[in-house]
Amino acid sequence: MNRPKRFITGIALALLASAAAACGGGSSSSTSGSSGAASESIKGQSITVLVPYKMPQKLLDQFTAETGVKVDYVVTGWDATHNKLLVANEAKSYIADVAEFDWSFTGQFAGAQWVEPLDNLISPSVLNDLKNTDAAFVSGGKTYAACYSNDFRVSMYNTKLFAKAGITEFPKTLDELGQAAEKLKASGVQYPLSIPMAATEGGVTPWYLLTLAQGGQLFDENLNPTFQDPESAGYKALQWEVDAVKKGWVSPGSVSMDDSVAFNKFTAGETAIVLATGPGNMPTANDPSQSSIAGDAAMGLVPGVDGPGGSFGLPEGLSIPVTAKHKAAAAAFIEWWERPENAIEIYKTQGSLPCGASTLKQLADSGQLQGGDIVNQELPHVGPLFTAGAPIWYSQFSSDAQGLLNSAVKGETSVADALNQLADKASARNS
Amino acid sequence: MRLPWNTGDGDRTARETLILGWILVIPAMLAVAALILYPMVHGFQQSIRSGGFLFGEQPGYVGLRNYRDVIHDPASRDAMRHTLEYVVLAVTLEMVLGILVAVTLHRVFRGRGLVLAVLILPWALPSVVSGVLWRRVFDPDNGLLNSLLMQLHVISHPHVWLASGRGAIVYITLVHVWGVLPLVSLIFLAGLQSIPEEVYSASSVDGAGPLRQFRYVTLPLLRPSMAIALTVGTLLAISIFDEIFVLNGTALNTRSILIQVYNTTFAQADFAHGTALAFLLAAVTAVFGALYALVLRRATV
């Protein structure tokens, strides 16, 4: 890597560490921690890990060889994982020793004391390294999860299909995006855009992103909804999605398509643009064993109104439920995951962009951070979805939004009706 | 006066029989109490409690407020309406088609055994699996139905089959009926086979043709089977979940009450309102069950 590139990468790292979580501030980070929790006392224990993403068995075997702790690694979809955790936690029953902890869980899970604060379970050096990205998981001064997926939204496109359509660069504005979609259609791409619109969490994320891209917010600082106003960014964002369906920019099936299916259509070469995805998906899109467009996938800045638009962070972490049977072994597993060599290997195979400052530095220095320049340019545009942190009623809001937005894109409800109903429900929950 | 045959041994035997009876029954009663009664009582308690701090409330009992809330909630009311549509449509189709299939299979013909074996297949498939199969058919982008209709030039663009309210409910009902029809048909077939041949012979002698025989002999004598088929069909349609969830997720246009219960309870973590809705559904199901049991009793006595 040459010097200017290293300099840019250095800036990217600093920004990445401070902004990707997009839910708080923080100072610089120190080096990574060690696997301090692994000791004789945990040898022979078995832990269950419940996370919505796969992990190579080879890595899990390494952990077992190092610590003597066996891992039952359970993968379910994001929505299913969320629901399983809710039920188990409400019933105060055991579900896993290490469990998924999304940025949106913080208010609810920490408030209900469903998860252990990690401050006394994980070594301070590891938590320090995660300090900035972990801001999303802090409540009442306690850290409830260790970030493992430094996720925020960027766009992705197929350079080959763009070249075929005569488009030389990724659109900077939503108007240009529409023009590009028309050109791509004319060049033979039947449905140029991949935008999931099913009644799932992944189906509402594009609306969140488009709202920020339109230059607005969903809620004001007092958590009052702002999206019901036809001039608001949230209203325009949903109208844009409805228009995308009507104009054939997205496939008709998008209204029942989840984010994983939408991304698969992109990696299969059926669509040319993924409007909202994580930077961690770049290795997958360019991996010949997982993608038909390997080598042609590139990242683009999320288009906005007059130039690149706003984006938001959705970091995901690992938590230890209060009902966990082997908390020390669980802590050892989290520390092991956060070790730079393991986090990088997981990024390369599974696509979770690491969170630790030292890991990110190592990743960038070794030239393994795909699309680093775009990541660097996107970060200044990344902001929080909720300026005051995810509210305690986020699950209910998200569930309401899933059904109502899906009705609007299907044409069953008007944009105004859907957003008015959603605003009424959100206001009632916030009152 | 002690009767000569009442020696006291009989008392002891009766007592021992009684004790043995209790010993045999108690494990089953404990199992029922642990697996049915306790969850029901616990569930009911939850349905009359507040949502707690997650909903900005103090924990405590709120009487029937949660029941009132779900009855007045537009999403729950839509789900109730959808469920009623599923039930009416599914049960009607199952009754009509079930009798037709049973009457056809009642005749002896070559390959009848094979047809019976094939007929039972959809019933043998778990409803999630049949939902996944039918998703391949209805998929708007790569589905079999769109592909076929476009090749036949019936439609020019892919149709999103599960997007519109009424249409989606009809298609999902068809998938449900596809799975339940074999069972209903077999119930009717068993009923047909229990009708004595002599009744048909006597009606033929009286000059009744096939249609009059069907109207005045077959249908009245099938009444017990109808009651059973109606009960089974209604209960399965009221509790429809898998087919909807696999084909259209929790989309508002096809939500049944059970999907609404699932969404309220698990996606929104609103256990209080979720269990209240579930108890309302259980009450409706119990009423239907009781009505059909009454009809069945009248039909068989």
| CATH fold label of the largest domain in chain A | D-Maltodextrin-Binding Protein, domain 2
- Low-pLDDT segments of chain B: none
Secondary structure: helix percent of chain B? over 70%
Task: Give the overall pLDDT of chain A as a whole number.
Answer: 86
Task: Give me the CATH superfamily of the largest domain in chain A.
Answer: Periplasmic binding protein-like II
Task: Please tell me the CATH architecture of the largest domain in chain A by its name.
Answer: 3-Layer(aba) Sandwich
What's the arrangement of strands in the largest beta sheet of chain A? 2-1-3-12-6
Shape of chain A: globular
Q: Which consecutive residue ranges of chain A, at least 5 long each, have pLDDT under 50?
A: 1-38
Number of helices of chain B: 13
Main CATH class of the largest domain in chain A: Alpha Beta
Overview of this protein structure:
The complex is a heterodimer of chains A (431) and B (301). With 431 residues, chain A is of the alpha/beta class. Chain A folds into 2 domains: 10-151 and 314-383, D-Maltodextrin-Binding Protein, domain 2 (3-Layer(aba) Sandwich); 154-312 and 393-430, Periplasmic binding protein-like II (D-Maltodextrin-Binding Protein, domain 2, 3-Layer(aba) Sandwich), CATH 3.40.190.10. Chain A is built from 17 helices and 13 strands. Chain A has helices at residues 3-19, 57-67, 78-90, 106-111, 124-129, 159-164, 174-186, 201-213, 233-246, 259-267, 282-285, 327-338, 340-350, 357-365, 372-378, 394-410, 415-430, and strands at residues 46-51, 70-75, 98-102, 138-139, 142-143, 146-149, 154-158, 193-194, 273-277, 297-300, 311-312, 316-319, 382-383. In chain A, strand 1 (46-51), helix 2 and strand 2 (70-75) form a beta-alpha-beta unit. The longest helix of chain A has 17 residues, at 3-19. Chain A is globular, with a radius of gyration of 21 Å. Chain B has 301 residues and is mostly helical. Chain B is built from 13 helices and no strands. Chain B has helices at 9-47, 65-72, 74-106, 112-124, 127-138, 144-151, 165-193, 197-205, 210-221, 223-238, 242-248, 257-267, 271-300. In chain B, helix 3 (74-106) packs across helix 12 and helix 10 runs antiparallel to helix 13 (271-300). Chain B is flat, with a radius of gyration of 26 Å. The chains are: A alpha/beta (431), B mainly alpha (301). Chain A binds chain B through residues 79, 82-83, 86-87, 90, 108, 111-112, 191, 198-200, 251-253, 255-256, 265, 392-393, 395-396, 398-399, 402-404, 406-407, 410-412, 429, and chain B through 53-56, 75, 139-142, 157-160, 162-165, 248-253, 255, 263, 265-271.
